[in-house]
Fold each of these.
Amino acid sequence: MAVDKLAFTGSTEVGKLVMAAASQSNLKKVTLECCCAGSRIFVEASIYDRFVERSVQLAQARVLGDPFEPKTSQGPQIDQDQLNKILELVESGKTEGAKLLCGGKRHGSRGYFVEPTVFAEVKDGMRIAREEIFGPVMQILKFDNVDQLIERANGALLC
């Protein structure tokens, strides 16, 4: 089967693999888009506590289930490997000192559901702030001024 072009949306790591594989075949055209999931959120110090509180309320109100059901606000992860990766990153957040406010566990015993998870007191050097999680894990980081925010955001290894 001839493939004229590949399109991929996801992590930088997998994007590089897709591009390398395409270049080794027939140098087909490749379109790559980095994921822009908003799991790492910078919040100004003056509203940080209120933002964190409201984020926890909204996370706890989410309905997990079949994504084709209208009442569902969060479906499962794609497979066991992704579920395990998310839970391992959650554990690293706890180990490195981020404050787990809600979630952080597998939901139920069927499917690949992860509870909506919110971390506060996240530091830039923590693994959960440096790696793409691709799951329902929110990391809330505090900033004091725009210059600091720009420097920190640009220093991340994410897309």
Amino acid sequence: MKRKYIIVPALAAGILAGCTEEQPNGGGLLDEPAIVQTLVAPQEGAEISLDNIETLAFEWSAAEWTGYGDVEYDLVFDYAEGDFSEPVYILPAEQSGVTKIFIPKSMLDELFYAGITDNKERISVSWAVIARSGSGLYSELSSEIRDLILTKTPDPAIVTDLLAPANGYDVVMKNLQESETVDFSWEAPVWLGEGDLSYEVVIDRPDGDFSAPLFKSPRVSETSVAVSREDFEAILETLASDEYSVSLKWAVNSFAGDNAWTSSVSSALNVVQQAKPFETGDPLYIGGAGSETGQQTVYIPSDYFNVSLADFEDKDCSNKKEVDYNYEIFTKLQAGTPFYFYAGYEDYFYTVSADGSAFKEISDASEAEGTVPSDGIYRIRFSTETGKAKVQIVTRVYCRNTSNATNIMMDYQGNGLWEVNNASAPFSAGNTYKFMVTAGGEGDGFDQPYGVTYQGTLSQDADESLWYVQPVRKGGNVLVYTYPSGLGSGLHVRLYLNNDKGHYTHEFLNWQ
């Protein structure tokens, strides 16, 4: 067995043979070294279950000693084949002359786990006492050595970490082919008991306790199971639900011999058996070879912007009256390549008309009509209720320092995100600023200011709503922000005209 040493604390003195030394301070020859003759408790061969104790007392008789100074004792342990020349555990008594030590269960657990071999529930150790006398000149092992058996019921092998699929994962039956599977995986628990572990995946109703699951996989020794389309069809048949999506949960049972445990956590799972009818407010995504495929549009209901502000822009630049839109996206498009929008699992498809003025449903992506005349970044607005749309190119986005009338251009990062990281940008705390979007072509071009949505003082821990941006009326100091204190040199700011943060917003990245 490979020896593991747990020395608390490590001692400088070894186990020394008896010898004759001069007593300190010229006191003559020392007596014979102090040696513990008798161990008192635990008894020889005692079997101690670590499941049933909090502490264990070790006691011995005091060693005879008439020499200089006190006798100090160390309780020492070694494993069955050891001779205490290199004890695996050394525990000094707290005070000189103490002949009884209470060892907490945690220390015995360390000793137990360090000594585990093939038998994972039982180890044999030996214990003795070292007497240190003559101010540390002598260090002698007790005349008696006792054996001790430590037993421990292994901790339950309960799975605590489910890896995949992620919590809330959607199993879309339409996309799951006959030969395909959904892989379930988890972290193996620590098991120190007898026998090997095996596992099974169980799937149940959200209010179930897995005692009678809807599905139970065959047992496996690995930490993953593949669940087939046929398995999910059987679950749906049992439930006989007409809902488009069925909510379930899954867990893992682990087994060792006659023992069985259910994981301490479960994970939500949805089986989508039919297309969900599209409703206004549902997520819509852009698609097409020349688009930023998968970018989510921003749903803008009537309360998305703070329209109660006197300077909220409701006509000229926001086109709120010209196009009564409820979805918007800032995105990059390639010229002449059709783009479209889709909902959910691509069961519903939509397009803007060839002239960009209408929004309508189509049967699939091949019917997409919308294109743009040149590569660039575009703002697309449409209404799922009125069917109106508007497509305008965005030519620049910049941060406008309204205190000193300077513009700091921002770079497009993709998916509706702009950023500027300018070490020499002219700004200082207390100055005011807003954001500007230049868009449109001849006849419908505009400079749209984006400013304050909710008024308040910006700081690193300010409420997120104070960072929101929305279209505001033109004017130098209309609903502008004030640069917060605590920023470093230069200017590093991001403008989110997308859904990443749940609202159009901005943030600084150069806090000190």
Amino acid sequence: MLKRAEVHGLKADDFVEKAKGLSDQYMAPRYPNFREERGIKLEDYTEDFAKQCLRTAKMIWERALEHIKNMILE
């Protein structure tokens, strides 16, 4: 989705890798073998990891909101 957003002018290259990690968290509960295929262990799910995911989501939200506001004002 971020790659598509870049086509519309949203700069996301500085956090694409973090966003991929966040996307993994969306996919993991939906596909039983996903964690195993990606090498993600249950022990990897820590409070710090959860906080990092929240920071990444917030960063994406804020960047998208700023971009939308700028588009409206143009």
Amino acid sequence: MKQDKAHGIVIAPNWPGQSWYTKLMTLTTRFLFLGQANKILEMGQRMKDMDQKLPPD
């Protein structure tokens, strides 16, 4: 996006501990915090079958 000077919308979790998070924040000009994952996301059957959890609050 930066090299092509493209505009876009990225929907990503607020996970500061992830390696990609810092790079994403350097590309960001504006952001909108939607809220805690457990309040806006619904876990799908595949995640349930794999015994995965939503990100922490």
